[in-house]
Amino acid sequence: MQTENKWYAIYTKPRWEKKVDGILLKNGINSWCPVQKVQKQWSDRKKIIEEPLFKSYVFVRINLKTEEKLKVLRADGVLNFVHYLGKPAVIKDKEVDTIKKYLSEKDTNIEIISIDGFNENAMVQVNQGVFMDNKGKV
């Protein structure tokens, strides 16, 4: 009996997110590296580039009970699955859909301004954007 495919996060080598995504897609793995457009300043020009939204992370939608897990782990640049309680952490479809919906909005940009003032285990609530009214723990 096979279980359905689920989303998992994998940890990659630094600055390998888009490369890993391409390698996994080429190997037939359903992979997604969320990116956002960011304007970068060089000494002689400005350029819009696509930067990974989550540094060193890529998402894969696979069935862990198949050979896909090994294909993912053997891909160049992949370090490991993100684990929770000793098992690869499952990411809910709803959470992935929320990120995709946010990134599809015009002129979206996620920016971390400062982590000062946040205490560990403090409860926070998002006040703007597609994540509005979501709560979480730091």
Quick summary:
With 138 residues, this protein is an alpha+beta fold. 21% of the residues lie in helices and 33% in strands.
Polypeptide structure, described:
- Strand 7 (83-84) and strand 8 form a beta hairpin.
- The protein is globular.
- Strands 1, 2, 5, 6 and 9 form a 5-stranded antiparallel sheet that branches. A two-stranded antiparallel ribbon has the order 3-4.
- It contains 3 helices and 11 strands; from the N terminus they run E-H-E-E-E-E-H-E-E-E-E-H-E-E.
- Helices cover 21% and strands 33% of the residues.
What attributes does this structure have?
two-stranded antiparallel ribbon, 3 helices, 21% helix, 138 residues, alpha+beta
The biggest beta sheet is recorded as: 5 strands, antiparallel
Number of helices, where a helix is a run of at least 4 consecutive DSSP H or I residues? 3
What string, H for helix and E for strand, traces the elements in order?
Answer: EHEEEEHEEEEHEE
Overall mean confidence score, pLDDT? 88
How large is the radius of gyration? 17 Å
Shape: globular
Report the β-strand fraction as a percent range.
Answer: 25-35%
Helix content: 10-25%
Poorly predicted ranges: none
From the N-terminal CA to the C-terminal CA, the straight-line distance is: 38 Å
What structural class results from the helix and strand content? alpha+beta
Number-wise, the strands total 11
